[in-house]
Amino acid sequence: MKKKLPLVVLISGSGSNLQAIIDGTNSDLPVEIRAVISNKTEAYGLERARQAGIETRVLDHTQFDGRDSYDLALGDIIEEYQPGLVILAGFMRILTPSLVKRFHGRMYNIHPSLLPKFRGLHTHERAIEAGETVHGASVHFVTEELDGGPLVMQTKVPVMPEDSPDTLAARVLKREHLIYPAAIKLFAEGSVKMEGDTVYHNGRPLESPILLETEKAT
Ligand code: GRF
Fold this sequence. Notes:
Elements: E1 5-11, H1 16-25, E2 31-38, H2 44-51, E3 56-58, H3 67-80, E4 85-88, H4 97-102, E5 107-111, H5 123-129, E6 134-141, E7 151-158, H6 165-188, E8 192-195, E9 198-201, E10 204-205, E11 210-212
Parallel strand pairs: 1-2, 1-4, 2-3, 4-5, 7-11
Antiparallel strand pairs: 5-6, 6-7, 8-9, 9-10
């Protein structure tokens, strides 16, 4: 059997993206989730991890003086598990540059917009307000720039005239559950990597993100 890529997944909430990755490990995703770490005790994703028999850790940010000490402790916990890739899956904290540097080229984030559009929060509301007809989600390597690291994969979702932020968010989230495991698989197989700040796909610099097919408008 081929060696599986060790992952550590960071969450703060529901963990539906974590679930998609767990489900992937039961089919064709060649990864092993060594630990799920949350900054919040009540994150439902911790329960998902427990049910899948995955080790969980909570590192409560309210118990720390500031970002530097928190991120130092967080980085140390992550390293205990020697992950090949660290997965931010709804981890609702801004990371310090030193933590980001520590995992350069081996940390992924998923963001619910077609980056570089709508970095930060409330992306669905902002996409509707801006009159976008197409919205989506992006997987990118994490760099010091918030939601600004080099893109790996995107998926597009049409914005319907009747969409509310919630209905749009729900459709985007369904697509997130497809692109996150897909993007992780490419890294696990060695066909995607980042060197410096350049993403390579099959040995060539990736000019634009790999696109997962567009959801059909119904
Ligand atoms: C997702 O929309 C993700 O893109 C964003 O936070 C949300 C997390 O959802 N970063 P879940 O916890 O994976 O259900």
